[in-house]
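We close this part of the discussion by returning to an individual protein. Part of our work consisted of pairing the sequence of a single chain with a tokenised description of its backbone. What the numbers capture is local backbone geometry rather than side-chain detail. The amino acid sequence and the backbone structure tokens for this protein are reproduced below.
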Amino acid sequence: MQWGHDPKLAQLLDEVQRLKLSRRSVLRRAAALGVTGSALATALAAAPAPARAQSKTRIRLATWAGADEANELQGVIDKVNQEATNFEIVSEPTPADYYVKLQTTIAGGTAADLFWLSQEYIAGYADQGALLDITDRLEGDSRPAANLSDYFEPILRTAQYQERTYGLPWISQPVLLYYNPDLFAAAGIPEPDDTWDWQRFQEVAAQLTDPSKGIYGTAFNGWPPVQMFIWQAGGEVITQDLSSCPVDSPEAIQAAEFYASIIFNEEYAPSEATLQEQGFGEMAKAGKVAMFFGGAADDLDYAHKKDPANARMKVALVPKGPQSRTTFAWTASTVIYAGTENADAAYDALVALTEGIHHWKVVAPRQSLANEETITASVPDKQESAPTIIKAMPDMRSFNIIPRHQEWDEIFWNEFQDPLYHGEGTAQELAQSVRPKLEELLP
């Protein structure tokens, strides 16, 4: 900007605007340039005030994070906020009754701009009109976290409904077989390898079980999900087109019977009462369960580093079923509230936050980040397990989700799984009875 015909005065005023000089600095600089005080005062009075920095839009983020996880998440958010120019994310963790409180805020129109949803909730919330459709925004976004072709397809599908995208997945946890190498060595049994199938797994579980010592080969309690074994047998509980629930197919029955033969059976696993008394995962950490199915992000493989009282555990691929080694992957997404007043800023925050979380949580659901280096950088204690995690990822998948999935799950558990595990009917009888009820809930 030019001020009259005095180049020295113009230079000084440009410096005032550009460098935001203090009054003392202005006077000192004016004296050095030979600009008179009266000329400076006149020019400053006429000059426009320096432009103020644009304020950032406040974007609220609701999560179920507990204290430790919320602290780690805040570190991710701080970095995102530091780089952002148009938004500032404010974390609102609600670990207790998360979904009850979330539903209440949505009903009242006061939900956070962004919030977390586990895979089984996204279709239902999208169907209710509670989520912002981000499909078109993603198509014009060149940022890596917005590149849908980079996501593992079965994981991305959990954030989509009716061919539209409603969120970005931030984690994909393939189930692995955690095992206690000391218990294997004591029994003289070779550690699990890629040749293991259901039969070998069950044989070794029996060999490692000694109820008199409180040691069991494995532990089931509804986890891992029976669906994983049904998929491995070539079956399905909800078809991908969401049109049927073939839980009574020969493949599904074979898997359900295999699962039922192990759960709560002290030839292989703790009784239900023992699990309730001693804790499910706690028994594995205490060295009382030799083989435990856990997610890739679980700390079982490095818990002994944090507390020497915990048993040392390693990881292997899950045993192969009759048709495949498909493994279940738990996943969750961050979504945008449809009623947000700041859709543009919320979308920018979503993409930036997703990128940050992908370098925090194990495993990032993107093919370009499915490598040992990213996993180890995110969680250094996962270095030894990283190769096996990467090996499991091509075989991972999630549930086929329907809008009324919570109702579906409740019926599948109460009228099929629970009675089967307690000997209140055969898999075939229960499956044939429950199938019509499950299919009534399909879209």
